[in-house]
Structures are given as structure tokens and as C-alpha cells.
Design goal:
By secondary structure, the protein is α/β, with parallel strands linked by helices. The chain is built from 27 helices and 26 strands. Bound molecules: zinc ion (ZN). The site of zinc ion (ZN) has 8 residues, from loops.
Length: about 675
């Protein structure tokens, strides 16, 4: 969603909005929302945008009365965004300048999309320094407060100049978000063939002459250069008034005709009032002059202009306004204008720094980064991994983990499957170094006591057995123990412990048929990429009447409801499936199991603390070991105190009834294989 307060059909919109969208629309589905001052050229532009696959919402721009008209436009923009959000999910809102950022801010609950704040300058300060608003006045204070909020909210910032970066970094508060410098770019091709002007070079002033511009210096510098002055501006009368009879060719030129008016070897004048807000400015004229092969005269303290001119030797930074300074600048400018190598440097800088392709590519990279476009090898799910339904919808508030909810079976899952490289990054070294506490070992013994009733084949399988702690306890009771894990390292370590191992994810035939009395999946289901396939393989491996014991985080838990996406379990690509009592039962029923019991137990204080830390904005997710540590310490404390044990049992009973505990525990029995036909 691209929001522009400048009309898309105006020259500025065409050169600074549409020009980028042409390239960006190749990779992204774009809706453009713009505010149009009139309807000139709309049919033609709409046809072009249709051809590019860009949807265009053209709203009317209101000029009168001031402030109130802007408020009205903002309200209409917010409504447009909200209605577009209802029509389908929005991955990114690109707000071009402050008014669109305000619209995006007001619509953020509806769009639930990250904000790209594309500042076109320090807007509020420009208004004060340009004399439009009184310094410290109400409008300024309100605008600055909004600006601070936009910076705090933005998931990415684009600025026109490197000179503005320190101030922007100060406003984003050290958050780790991309801040890109993308100057106003220019399609260099039409300017590239600008030959030399017949009759010798001119000094050329292109563009506005009011407020911000030192147009008064133009005739004086032309005089020092000993060159005729050409002024190409829409403000013809204002220019003539400032010139006060000084000789100059003053004309209005349509933007499309501009390339024909700029000639290699002419000298471009880009003289702007230096002020703090101008650190963020990148005048389009500068890039156009360079593209035409013209050296440029600039004033100091405007964006990156002086740094670029000095570093690339493509013009002169005026050292002052007195006659001596102008004469010294003029001397060097004449040398550069007469030097073919200097003209070539100008064109090269225009192409490398201000090229439209470069600018478009940088925006495309930023879009990909901010919308979390799939990495190479990462896949996007088109259907529910539990029931196969394609009626899946984005789960609002859980965008970072890509959560989706199935409209058919209610399963919540990550809408993506990580690439092999992402899996390696996630699971290399996973689980190593976690030692089991006395409480955990006691819990293992309780489970094994329970499993004795199922002993027939004498074999037990622990799916995702980690470092084999549970299976070692089982082996000590005479069970034949099998495990699965997803890394070769874990397989080797467990084989050395005497455990028969199979590499996960499981494929049909990986396990002996109907071989196991008991299969356990302890905190594993949430990691499984294809739960249906996994359950089918397990169902084939377990004997009729055998027990499947499953624990997994409970997405219906009070903790998750309290913490939302800050719940420490919500993590991609670590967790791919988020079960509830209902979806867990449905999953295993479909695979051929009958539920014996599904309960929820416990609030993990470690997880809640972790979620609260996250909510406060702690950057790195705390390690799993830290959570386990917090919980284990607490559990050991409870086990030692009879009173606390009682409290815990009461709490668990209450939560169990409400199915609001942190962990789902399910016991399922393998139904007889010969099932009646439906
Ligand atoms: Zn489903």
C-alpha cells in the first residue's frame, strides 16, 4: 500500500512516485492511494497503472480551508486504507512524507501492517524555517509530536540524504530498523544525449525561485561567469521581479521538455538557503543537471550536495556570497564546463547515485526486508497442514511469526516452512547442554509407571527425543528404546547412549510396523512441519491398542491470551504448529487414534516472565535454557513444600477445567487398523 499526498498524475508524482512503482510492481502487488488536485491526465495514467497491475485509489485533494481541509483528507485517507484492509491483508504501508504517515498511523489497527516512513525532508521544521508556521507554535508542536510517533512506529525509514542520518537515528531510539538513503532519482536516459549548446554555454537556473532559493545570487554568479542566464521556471513573474531588470531568458518549460533545455557544458545553479531542515533535502534539479553533463554550483549546508560536489569534483561549493567568493567559484566552474572529463564525471555520478534503477532496486530490497518476503528455499503454505483446507487467514497481531488460522478446522500454524538453511540455523546445537533436573527425572518415572500397563512388545519410541534423557530412564526399566531427532549430531550422540535412532522428519517405512507399545512426543508437535504425515507414520509404527502420549504448548492458554505475540512460544521458524485441545484431538483422531484424555496443566512462570521481557522490548529472545531454568527452580521449590504442592494442584485443576494451562497433555489409544469404511 503506497500512500502519497502528492497527486500521482502531476509531474512530481510521475517522476517521483510512478517512476519507482513501475519497477516495484514487478515483484509486489501494489495499491496506490494518492490525493489528486484535478483529473487531468487521469485516464491515461489509469490505463498505464492497469497495465502494470497497480490498483489506484485516487482521492480528491482539498485546498480550503487550511488545516481543516488536510484533516478532512486525512480522515478520507484513513477510511480508504481501512476499507482496503478489509478487502485483503496488507503487508506494508509505504507512507510518502508526513500526511500519509499520519493516515497510516490512524489506520494501523485495521491494516496491521509495518510502516515504511519515507520522509521527504524534515517536514515540520521546513514549515517553520520557510516562514509558513511560527516557531514553537501549536501546529509545529503537534506536527513534531506526530513525527516522533511515526519514527517510533516505523519498521523502516527512507531519507534523501546521508546528512540527515544522525538526526533520524536519534529519533528511532536505537531500534534495529533499516534506515535507507535513497535520494530523489532521475531517469537519466532523456538527459544523456544533451549535446553542447549552440553559441556556447549558459548559466541555467531550473525550478522554483521562492522561499528556499537563493535566486538573488543567480544573476550575480552569471555575471561573474560572464555567461548568459537562462531561467526555466513556472514562477516567471516572481523570477522577473527578483531579477529587477538584470538580463536573463526567463521561460516556463513543461517537465517533458526539460531534457532538451539542459546542455552539456552549461553550468547548473542549485543555490538554496542553508538551514537545519535542509540537511534532509535532495533537489531533483541537481541530479538532472548532472545527468545532462553539467557541472553544478551549490551553496553549502544543503543535504549531501557539498559532500558530493567535493568528493566527485563535479562542481563548486560557493565559499560565500561576496564578489570574491563568486569570482573564485566562477573561475573553477568555467574550467569544469570546458573539460569533457568533468562532464563525464557528472553523468557517471548521476547514473550511479541518482539513477532510477538504483533507487528502485533499493526500495525493492527494503520492501522484501520489511514484508519478510520468503527467503530462497522457504515455502509459503497455501492450505492448512492439518485438514488441507485453503480457507486460511492471517492471524492479526502475529505477523512476525507468519501465523495463520484455518477457517475449517481452527488450527493455528506458521504460514511458511523454513528452508534447509533456516532449519540448520535453528537446530544446530539445539537442546544440547540442557540437563534434566531432579523434578524432570521424577516426572519421567511417574510416566513410566503409567506406561507399564501397555507393555506387550516391550518397545517404546520417543519422537524428538532430544538428548535421550527419557529413553535412558525407560531403558533402565528394561524397555527396548527407540528415538528420532532431526540432526545427525543428535543421532550420533544418542546411538552412543545405546538408543536406536531414526532421522526426522519421518517417512513411511522408516519405523517397524505395529512395533511399539508406547510412543511419546514431548514438546515436539509444535516443531513438526507436516503433522498429518508425521501422525500417519507414527500410527503405522504403534500397535493396536498402544498408547500415544503427547505434550505441546496450548495456544488457548491464559498466558497466550494475556501476552499475545509476546508469548514466548510464538517464534518462527522454531514453532510451526500451535495446538489447542480441539485441534490436537482432531489431528490424532484423523490419524487413527482415539482420545483417552486431553488436559491442560500448569502456568510456566518462565514463559510468562519471558513474554513480559519481550513486551518491554528486550531485543534477543531469551534462551530456552533460561526458561527451563526459571521453571525448574520454581518446580523444585514447589515439590519441596507440601503447602505449595497443594496450591499448585488447585491451580492446575482450575486451569485444567478452563483448558487454560500452558501445556496440553494428551493420551491417545491406537484404534484397530481394520477400520470400517465411512
Ligand atoms: Zn484446517
Amino acid at each position: 500500500m503506497y500512500v502519497s499526498y502528492d497527486g500521482a498524475a502531476e509531474p512530481l508524482g510521475r517522476s517521483q512516485v510512478i517512476a519507482y512503482l513501475r519497477g516495484l510492481a514487478r515483484e509486489h502487488a501494489i495499491t496506490l492511494v494518492s490525493f489528486e488536485k484535478d483529473r487531468a491526465g487521469h485516464d491515461e495514467l489509469r490505463a498505464e497503472l492497469d497495465g502494470l497491475g497497480i490498483a489506484w485509489v485516487a482521492l480528491d485533494y482539498h485546498r480550503h480551508p487550511p488545516v481543516l481541509s488536510t484533516a478532512l483528507d486525512v480522515a478520507r485517507g484513513r477510511r480508504a486504507l481501512a476499507s482496503l484492509a478489509r478487502a485483503g491483508p496488507i503487508d506494508l504501508v509505504h507512507a510518502r512524507s508526513d500526511v500519509p504517515a499520519l493516515i497510516a498511523h490512524l489506520a494501523r489497527r485495521r491494516t496491521a501492517a509495518p510502516l515504511l516512513f519515507d520522509i521527504r525532508g524534515f517536514w515540520a521544521d521546513e514549515r517553520v524555517e520557510g516562514g509558513l508556521w511560527p516557531r514553537g507554535g501549536l501546529l509545529y508542536r503537534i506536527a513534531r509530536r506526530w513525527e516522533r510517533r511515526f519514527y517510533a512506529e516505523a519498521a523502516g525509514v527512507v531519507t534523501l540524504t546521508a546528512a540527515s542520518l544522525p538526526r533520524i537515528r536519534a529519533q528511532t531510539g536505537g531500534r534495529d530498523i533499516p534506515v535507507e538513503v535513497i535520494p530523489t532519482c532521475v531517469d537519466a536516459a532523456p538527459f544523456a544525449n544533451a549535446g553542447e549548446r549552440r553559441g556556447g554555454p549558459h548559466a541555467v537556473w531550473s525550478g522554483s525561485v521562492g522561499t528556499w532559493y537563493r535566486f538573488d545570487l543567480a544573476p550575480r554568479l552569471a555575471g561573474a561567469l560572464g555567461l548568459p542566464l537562462t531561467v526555466l521556471t513556472r514562477q516567471v513573474d516572481e523570477a522577473r521581479a527578483t531579477l529587477a531588470g538584470a538580463p536573463a531568458d526567463v521561460r516556463a518549460v513543461a517537465p517533458a521538455d526539460m531534457p532538451a533545455e539542459l546542455h552539456a557544458g552549461d553550468i547548473g545553479l542549485c543555490l538554496i538557503v542553508s538551514s537545519p531542515s535542509k540537511q534532509a533535502s535532495a533537489p531533483t534539479r541537481f541530479a538532472e543537471y548532472l545527468a545532462a553533463g553539467m557541472p553544478v554550483a551549490v551553496t553549502a549546508g544543503v543535504g549531501d550536495l557539498d559532500a558530493l560536489v567535493a568528493a566527485h569534483d563535479v562542481g563548486v561549493v560557493l565559499a560565500g556570497e561576496d564578489d570574491d567568493a563568486l569570482r573564485a567559484g566562477a573561475l573553477r566552474l568555467r574550467e569544469l564546463a570546458a573539460d569533457p572529463a568533468a562532464r563525464e564525471r557528472c553523468r557517471r555520478l548521476a547514473a550511479e547515485r541518482f539513477g532510477l534503477e538504483q533507487g528502485t532496486r533499493r526500495y525493492a530490497q527494503l520492501y522484501a526486508q520489511m514484508t519478510r518476503a520468503p527467503a530462497p528455499g522457504e515455502t509459503v503454505l497455501a492450505a492448512c497442514p492439518l485438514c488441507g483446507s485453503e480457507a486460511i487467514a492471517r492471524l492479526r497481531g502475529y505477523e512476525a511469526a507468519h501465523l495463520r488460522r484455518c477457517g475449517t478446522c481452527g488450527f493455528v500454524f506458521a504460514g511458511r516452512r523454513p528452508s534447509a538453511a533456516q532449519m540448520r540455523a535453528q537446530y544446530d546445537g539445539y537442546g544440547t547442554g540442557v540437563t534434566e533436573s531432579a523434578v524432570t527425572l521424577k516426572r519421567y518415572e511417574e510416566l513410566l509407571d503409567e506406561f507399564e500397563a501397555y507393555r506387550q512388545t516391550g518397545r517404546i519410541l520417543d519422537v524428538g527425543c532430544g538428548e535421550g534423557g527419557f529413553l535412558q530412564a525407560a531403558a533402565a526399566r528394561g524397555w527396548e528404546v527407540h528415538g528420532t531427532e532431526s540432526t545427525e549430531g543428535a543421532l550420533e550422540r544418542n546411538r552412543a547412549r545405546g538408543i536406536a535412532m531414526t532421522l526426522a522428519p519421518l517417512a513411511p517405512g522408516d519405523l517397524p510396523a505395529a512395533a511399539f507399545d508406547v510412543v511419546t512426543m514431548i514438546e515436539v508437535a509444535e516443531h513438526v512441519g507436516d503433522p498429518r504425515a508425521e501422525a500417519t507414520v507414527i500410527a503405522a509404527a504403534i500397535r493396536d491398542g498402544g498408547l500415544l502420549y503427547v505434550t505441546t504448548p496450548n495456544f488457548d492458554s491464559a498466558s497466550r491470551r494475556l501476552l499475545g505475540a509476546d508469548w514466548s512460544i510464538v517464534e518462527y521458524p522454531e514453532h510451526l504448529g500451535y495446538f489447542t485441545a480441539s485441534t490436537l484431538t482432531r489431528w490424532l483422531r484423523e490419524a487413527g487414534f482415539a482420545p483417552l484424555s486431553v488436559t491442560t496443566t500448569g502456568i510456566s512462570p518462565g514463559r510468562v516472565a519471558q513474554g513480559l521481557r519481550r513486551r518491554r522490548g528486550a531485543t534477543a529472545p531469551p534462551s530456552r535454557a533460561a526458561t527451563v531454568g526459571d521453571d525448574e527452580r520454581l518446580r523444585e521449590g514447589i515439590e519441596r513444600s507440601p503447602a505449595l504442592r497443594l496450591v499448585k494442584r488447585a491451580a492446575n485443576a482450575t486451569l485444567g477445567v478452563a483448558r487454560a494451562g500452558d501445556t496440553l497433555k494428551g493420551r491417545f489409544e491406537r484404534r484397530a487398523v481394520s477400520r470400517p469404511a465411512p
